[in-house]
Amino acid sequence: MRKTCEICLTVNSGMRHAKRVVCIPCLDKVLEAHFENATNRMNCWNCGTQMIWGGDHSFDDVGMDGEGIASNFSCPTCSAHADFYVPI
Predict the structure, then answer these.
(1) pLDDT at position 38 over 70
(2) Which H/E stretch holds residue 24?
């Protein structure tokens, strides 16, 4: 089924993104802009480099009691590591 991209108006097979039909090149631009302007990035407390998210785990996965999410981040520059524990 052919659809029209809501951004560039080309007719193509279309992809759905946030309930919108967009073509792949436009979707790439939308995602790139989103991550370029993201405010939830975390910089390393030691050197200031943007940290890399390693993953999320349940409290049970990391041996903690209760319900929650444990997230880990690492720095590609100085190898610092940060863990965050958020109860839910």
Answers:
(1) no
(2) helix 24-36
